[in-house]
Design brief:
alpha+beta; seven-stranded mixed β-sheet; six-stranded mixed β-sheet; 16 helices
Length: 510
């Protein structure tokens, strides 16, 4: 009998990856494809859902071929996805009515400020655990229903989108839902993605009727919510479809919760930070939804079949890896790997601070009108200083969240598990250890978002029997300990607040 594996579709902000894992959690196949970033106006970010689906089919097919595998060797598929990114599609044709609005998109900032004026912020936080922000799916769905049809992909039918949504002719979902629908024909999401919509009551585990009414989102268009690892499965792929096999789709997690799962943070107090387009610091708080007093989010970490929901505290940093991409965009670097070399070539930033608030600031500041800022430049400032300041901004933003996390949880951070593309940069990992003054632990498999969704799917179908098996798979690649004096780290971090202040409330005209 041929060996069997678990496949994982990792649909991220900049591209789609397909990975196949064996029993030991090792990678046996890997394929990746980027998709277009669409910027119709300043602060607006969109993706083409059809392109994402086509790319998904492409990477799955190519990954299997490159690995010399057949789809029949997959015991299950797991899905992980960029969270909050929202789309609406026609139930009959399966066609989106508009491009997906990406989590970074700020076009609904005015609507959020309206909620603030109406004193609805605490009301929303009490139900969802979230800050009211354009980041989440509720205002995005509202915007699509109000504005999509006049813009593009207009339906031939005469009814407006809201009428069609109420009659069940339209479906809404985050990217996991879109992929599950295209893979299985079922309209399903998992609890972690539902918890990021600003429409879901995270303690009662239901779509909240009052929030649906506030944003005029009909329940008829919402997906069914299932556990992250589901023994009943979400459905199977079509044997006559692109895979040519009937494979169960059995696990789904938003990307940051998937990384928590992949880092085997199964116990209360376990924490990880993922460095991708943005950075997302999550701590497992067990079966208690811990409220934040310091600008963090209370969210669902994961749920196994037949078990209680596990909650998490989260610090969402919107721009970290994307700041390195910006350095490429403006020709300060040729590639991301060059940042370490340039940053090491100078002893310091020479007083330069860079705040990468390109799409506003997330935790713990939550200012949708903040914008990117570079301060402290002199005539002697060179690109090396700006590159180093950009890397330092990643470390400072993470310390912002780490301090908030300790204050909310009462748990001191002694070590932090890290993953994502940026942690391949040893200079950044050491810098992070210095600025937070704690140990940084990098695992051997750093694509932990894909690994986490594979684990969820594999547990659901019995490929792995217990989470203890997964813990034994986790192996350290390298640890970084603080080399900088604590007083020096505090001094550098002290001026970060001054730089943040200069970025706040900048985009008043947008």
């Amino acid at each position: 009998m041929a060996d069997t594996y678990i496949g994982a579709i990792d649909q991220g902000t900049t591209g789609t990856r397909f990975m196949v894992f064996d029993h030991g959690g090792q990678v046996v196949a890997n394929a990746y494809e980027q998709h277009e970033q669409i910027y119709p106006e300043p602060g607006w970010v969109e993706h083409d859902p059809v392109e994402i689906w086509e790319n998904t089919k492409e990477v799955v097919t190519r990954g299997l071929a490159d690995g010399g595998l057949d789809a029949s060797q997959l015991e299950a598929l797991g899905i992980t996805n960029q969270r909050e990114t929202t789309l609406v599609w026609d139930e009959e044709t399966g066609k989106p009515v508009h491009n997906a609005l990406v989590w970074q998109d700020r076009r609904t900032t005015d609507r959020v400020e309206e909620l603030e004026r109406e004193d609805k912020i605490e009301w929303i936080r009490g139900k969802t655990g979230l800050e009211a922000d354009a980041y989440f799916s509720a205002t995005k769905t509202e915007w699509i229903l109000d504005n999509a049809e006049p813009l593009k992909l207009s339906s031939s039918r005469s009814e407006n989108l809201r009428d069609r949504a109420r009659s069940g002719e339209l479906m809404m979902g985050t990217i996991d839902t879109w992929l599950i629908y295209n893979l299985t024909g079922e309209h399903i999401t998992d609890v972690t993605n539902a918890s990021r919509t600003m429409l879901y009551d995270i303690e009662n585990l239901t779509w909240d009727p009052e929030l649906l009414d506030e944003f005029d989102v009909p329940e008829a268009m919402l997906p069914e919510v299932r556990p992250s690892s589901d023994e009943e499965t979400y459905g199977t792929t079509d044997p006559d479809g692109f895979l040519g096999a009937e494979v169960p789709v059995a696990g789904a997690l938003g990307d940051q919760q998937a990384a928590l799962f992949g880092q085997t943070c199964f116990d209360e107090g376990d924490a990880k930070n993922t460095y991708g387009t943005g950075s997302f610091y999550l701590m497992n708080t067990g079966d208690e939804a811990v409220s934040s007093e310091h600008g963090l989010l209370t969210t669902i970490g994961f749920q196994m079949s037949g078990e209680p929901v596990q909650y998490a505290l989260e610090g969402s940093i919107f721009i970290t890896g994307a700041a390195i991409e910006w350095l490429e965009d403006v020709d300060l670097i040729n590639n991301a790997a060059q940042t370490a070399e340039l940053a090491r070539s100078v002893d310091s930033t020479d007083g330069v601070y860079m705040v990468p608030a390109f799409t506003g600031l997330g935790a713990p500041h939550w200012d949708g009108r903040a914008r990117g800022t570079i301060v402290g430049m002199t005539r002697g400032t060179r690109k090396e200083h700006i590159v180093r300041a950009t890397l330092e901004s990643i470390a400072y933003q993470t310390r912002d969240v780490a301090e908030a996390m300790e204050a909310d949880s009462g748990i001191e951070t002694t070590s932090l598990r890290v993953d994502g593309g940026a942690v391949k940069n040893n200079f950044l990992c050491q810098l992070q250890s210095d600025i937070i003054q704690t140990d940084i632990v990098r695992p051997q498999v750093d694509e932990t978002t894909a690994l986490g969704s594979a684990y969820a799917a594999g547990l659901a179908v019995g490929y792995w029997d217990t989470v203890d098996e997964l813990r034994s798979n986790w192996q350290v690649d390298r640890e970084f300990s603080p080399e900088m004096d604590t007083a020096e780290a505090d001094r550098l971090y002290g001026r970060w607040d001054d730089a943040i202040e200069r970025s706040l409330d900048w985009a008043q005209e947008e």
